[in-house]
């Protein structure tokens, strides 16, 4: 079956279906790359960000040039806006999956922190605690800088030892030295644990 008519510039199918679809896909691509570029830039990846920026602007120029050639085609505008929105979403999902960078977790527990601090240190998390004065008296503020991929694990530890603790999570652009949890190699015994966590 000959489908060449779909790509003929004067074809109604090309004008109202194929072209908006191509613009939509191009906009998804360039906006996804753009979102990733900004994320990498904020994380301090100075070489990767410009590399992505080159491809981002090339794809954007192609999409915009097609818009300018078909100013009377409202579907092109819709495709352009839709691709922009979807590209933002996809870029954020990809960044979340990659779990790039480090974060600072600031914890203000509601009860004794000794067990929480001990457990974090035993699991190779760097912990700094300071005494402070809260609205209801003296409190200990705990700081730990961790890999972003470890957030769920650390939050689970906080909830285990100090339910209802107040904590904040902030991105950290750069760090120098410090203690970070080293990934443990999985063994055959992990598959036999049936998801049961050992209490320490």
TrEMBL record:
GO CC entries: plasma membrane
Protein's cellular compartments: Cell membrane
Protein origin, superkingdom: Bacteria
Domain DUF2179 per the UniProt entry, residue ranges: 125-175
InterPro entries for this protein: DUF2179, DUF5698, N-reg_PII/ATP_PRibTrfase_C, UPF0316
Membrane-spanning intervals of the chain: 6-26, 47-68, 74-94
Residue ranges of domain DUF5698 in the record: 35-92
Presence of keyword Cell membrane: yes
Keywords tagged on the record: Cell membrane, Membrane, Transmembrane, Transmembrane helix
Membrane topology of this protein: Multi-pass membrane protein
HAMAP family attached to this UniProt entry: UPF0316 (MF_01515)
Similarity-based family: Belongs to the UPF0316 family.
Protein name: UPF0316 protein TBC1_111338
Source species taxonomy: Bacteria, Pseudomonadati, Bacteroidota, Bacteroidia, Bacteroidales
């Amino acid at each position: 079956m000959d489908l060449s008519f779909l790509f003929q510039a004067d074809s109604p199918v090309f004008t109202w279906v194929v072209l908006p679809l191509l613009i939509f896909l191009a906009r998804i691509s360039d906006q996804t790359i753009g979102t990733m570029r900004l994320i990498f830039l904020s994380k301090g990846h100075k070489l990767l960000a410009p590399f992505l920026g080159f491809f981002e602007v090339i794809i954007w120029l192609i999409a915009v040039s097609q818009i300018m050639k078909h100013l009377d085609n409202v579907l092109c505008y819709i495709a352009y806006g839709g691709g922009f929105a979807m590209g933002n979403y996809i870029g954020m999902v990809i960044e979340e999956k990659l779990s790039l960078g480090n974060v600072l977790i600031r914890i203000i527990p509601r009860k004794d922190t000794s067990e929480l601090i001990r457990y974090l240190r035993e699991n190779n998390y760097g912990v700094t605690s300071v005494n402070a004065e809260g609205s209801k008296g003296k409190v200990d503020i705990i700081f730990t800088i961790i890999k972003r991929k470890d957030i769920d694990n650390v939050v689970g530890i906080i909830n285990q030892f100090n339910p209802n603790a107040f904590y904040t999570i902030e991105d950290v652009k750069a760090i120098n030295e410090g203690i970070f949890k080293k990934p443990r190699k999985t063994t055959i015994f992990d598959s036999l644990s049936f998801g049961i966590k050992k209490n320490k």
